[in-house]
Amino acid sequence: MNLLAEKRILLGVSGGIAAYKSAELVRRLRAAGAMVRVVMTSAATGFVSARTFQALSGEIVRCGWSDDQSGMDHIELARWAERILIAPASADTLARLAQGRADDLLAAICLASRAPLLVAPAMNQAMWRHAATRDNVQRLLERGVQVCGPDTGEQACGDVGPGRMLEPQILQQVLSDSFANGRLAGLKVVVTAGPTREAVDPVRFLGNRSSGKMGYAVARAAREAGASVALVSGPVALEAPTGIQRVMVESAQEMLEAVLARIEGCDIFIATAAVADYRPVAPEPQKIKKQASDWSLQLEPVPDILAMVAALEKRPWCVGFAAETEHLEQNARKKRMHKGVEMIAANQVGGELGFESDNNELLLVWEGGERQLPVADKNLLADQLVEQVADLYADQNTAHEPLENHAKHSA
Length: 411
Fold this sequence. Notes:
The protein has helices at 19-31, 50-57, 73-80, 91-99, 105-112, 125-129, 131-142, 168-178, 213-224, 252-262, 305-310, 328-339, 378-400, 403-410; strands spanning 8-13, 35-40, 83-89, 117-121, 146-147, 151-154, 160-164, 188-193, 198-199, 205-206, 228-233, 245-248, 268-271, 278-280, 299-301, 317-324, 343-348, 359-366, 369-377. The chain is an alpha/beta fold and 411 residues long. It folds into 2 domains: 8-178, Flavin prenyltransferase-like (Rossmann fold), CATH 3.40.50; 188-410, CoaB-like (Rossmann fold, 3-Layer(aba) Sandwich), CATH 3.40.50. It starts with 7 loop residues before the first strand and ends with a helix. The model is unreliable at 399-411 (pLDDT under 50).
């Protein structure tokens, strides 16, 4: 399965003859739908030109601090990357990473980023076997760095042994596999996302500022965790995530009907959508003309989708979202109890967070616990949320899952 579509990959290229393979790797990653930015060490530019990587990636290539006009490129790139792969990773680069140095742009990015780091060593077989290199590699492994290779074979210097960089197609697969964790393998997940629109007349509607980005990120994260995912989406300007069944709706009633049509056999329901609380009692069949006098609109409550799903006799494990402007934790806990769900993911809206933003922060609350997810890109938050859901579901699903699902999982 290709899990690289729309993923943000930062490729670090250090000095070594294997750098020519990195050009092919960029081409393959782009063909798989990934977004790729390249950072080269000064030594790497002696083997392959920055212009080559720029042509292949379609992005500006950074070759050192001199390219950092703002002085903050290392922070921006560190935040942008979902994965960092250094290929080739020379012995010098491995030493810099092991020592936690930040005296070149690539090392500083690795030190500042929370993204998983992968390295593909490439060097002479004697350098790879040297005790200093072995110690550095061991230190990186202990920190959670994924060391890919090296391969064994004939080397440019004429030696034969370990030290060849893995081939581009292998590194592409390693990167793709790094996005699949299998935590929800075999489970069915239904996710709602985006806003709803409640018609006032054929032209106007009541709505909200939800972009759908968080819900789409959650659907993508659940799929990458191995789940079969159905996404019920309000009107948004987003492409359907790869490998996900998406149904588009407009009103809260349409969203409810779409959810109920897909909820049978569902293991986990994640209600990310910002569903309207009220709708016009009687939408006008024709456009309402502007009037000089005051005009009032009679509203009625819309169906509470999350509460209705949570009240089903054979119900899934439920996660709700709460957008708040004050008293975040207090309101989140009240909403969890009121809705009767296992978890609430609450976020403060306003400013540069929440609606219409690429970033957010979440407070996850459940019975007997909570977890704060600090400000980050919504894709990273979605990964962390799904990870927490998978942990809690594994602990609690026996008490909550549908009986037929329990039999299925026990088979």
